[in-house]
Design brief:
Length: 400
């Protein structure tokens, strides 16, 4: 297991050789530093994402004590209240009910209606980058686009939107492996502040509803069910965090990959019709979410190894997306790859509800950069964020 070290900067910079070693050595591996079972193969990850013997939570069936786990520290309660009421961390029947209600507000038509706004915003951001002769692709294009889009959807007033990204970054720090006390304290503080802000906004929308998603969540009603206020708050935070973290990192990871593969970038610049398949391939090639966790609710067996109830499984999305059993020449970037069953948006009941919006945003920013910045090139070597689970860059400096 020496090759797998999520706190080693060299591993974080390029985890894919270690993944290849894990796949060669077997289908499941116990990793003592995080007390998790690592699953590196695409077939297993894909099956486990759909296996109802696993869950994002266990508290719908067991107490902490019954499950052999320790309850979170009381001082972390604001984070867990916020996190545990979002549909990503719930299991049926609560997950089914909340997703059904959220889907009434987050409809395909709602997403499709955003296309012109997303494209206009992407064009404006890229135009400013071009006028400046370059800049940081992360802060100038990748970050502001999805944050503005999800804020527009939620109905967050313009002057308040600068607060969203710092709150999101602090909360998402808790999704890394073995987060520090400092990370937890930041997440708790952000959870309290963000929840308080949304509680006030929800109260205002109750009095004066609009066409935004929060108004839609308030109005969502089905079979006698409505979302509670906490469920609305947790859903809004989840949509913001999931709705832009992955898109931000997919954008910079993708362009960094393109700039390291000039032949593929040249082909894309020649034929913009490759954009849809390029979006899928770049999501696969350098996966923005490298690991996804599940609790074992009932004993399961993988390749003769019994994983007992109470254990935690870490499904390695980045490894699964590089599995040569599914992706020929998996280590090569191929923007024409047509058979591309990557799992970057997860699978099963927790498949990303925002996947269509993410694809629209990624295609819009890529098209704008191809059209307006055809000579875009790297201005300096980028630096990886130290995070392993949520994979991204500190900055991506570019010039024209």
């Amino acid at each position: 297991m020496a090759a797998f070290d999520p706190w080693d900067p060299a591993f974080v910079a390029d985890p894919y050789p270690a993944y290849a070693e894990l796949r060669e050595r077997g289908r499941v591996h116990y990793y003592e530093p995080t007390d998790q079972w690592l699953v590196p193969h695409h077939a297993d990850v894909s099956a486990l994402l759909r296996d109802r013997r696993l869950g994002r939570t266990y508290q719908h069936r067991f107490s902490h004590e019954d499950f052999g786990r320790t309850a979170p520290p009381p001082e972390h309660e604001p984070f867990h209240t916020l996190n545990d009421h979002g549909m990503l961390d719930l299991e049926p029947p609560d997950h089914t009910r909340i997703r059904r209600l959220v889907s009434k507000a987050f409809t395909p038509r709602t997403v499709e209606r955003l296309k012109p706004y997303v494209r206009h915003l992407a064009d404006e951001l890229v135009s400013a980058l071009v006028a400046a002769g370059g800049g940081d692709l992360l802060t100038d294009v990748a970050e502001p686009l999805p944050v503005a889009v999800i804020a527009e959807m939620l109905g967050i007033p313009g002057p308040d939107r600068d607060r969203l990204r710092p709150w999101s970054a602090d909360i998402c720090g808790m999704y890394e492996l073995n987060p520090s006390q400092e990370t937890a304290a930041k997440a708790v503080r952000a959870s309290v502040e963000f929840s308080g802000y949304l509680r006030e906004l929800i109260a205002a929308r109750r009095k004066d509803p609009g066409e935004d998603l929060i108004s839609g969540l308030i109005a969502a009603y089905d079979e006698g069910d409505r979302l509670t206020e906490q469920e609305m708050i947790s859903t809004a935070v989840l949509l913001l965090n999931a709705g832009h973290e992955a898109t931000v990192n997919a954008t910079v990871n993708g362009w960094w990959a393109l700039l390291r593969n000039p032949a593929q970038l040249a082909a894309l610049r020649t034929d913009h019709c490759l954009v849809p398949s390029a979006v899928e391939e770049l999501m696969r090639y350098d996966t923005p979410l490298q690991l996804f966790e599940r609790w074992v609710l009932d004993d399961i067996e993988i390749d003769g190894t019994t994983i007992p109830r109470g254990a935690e499984i870490a499904m390695l999305f980045g490894s699964a997306n590089h599995d040569p059993a599914v992706f020929p020449d998996a280590g090569e970037l191929d923007l024409t790859r047509s058979d591309n069953p990557h799992i970057s948006f997860s699978a099963g009941i927790h498949y990303c509800i925002g996947a269509p919006l993410a694809r629209i945003e990624l295609a819009a920013s890529m098209t704008a950069l191809l059209e307006q910045a055809p000579t875009l090139r790297l201005a300096a070597e980028p630096k990886r964020k130290p995070n392993f689970v949520i994979r991204g860059l500190e900055a991506l400096p570019v010039e024209l």
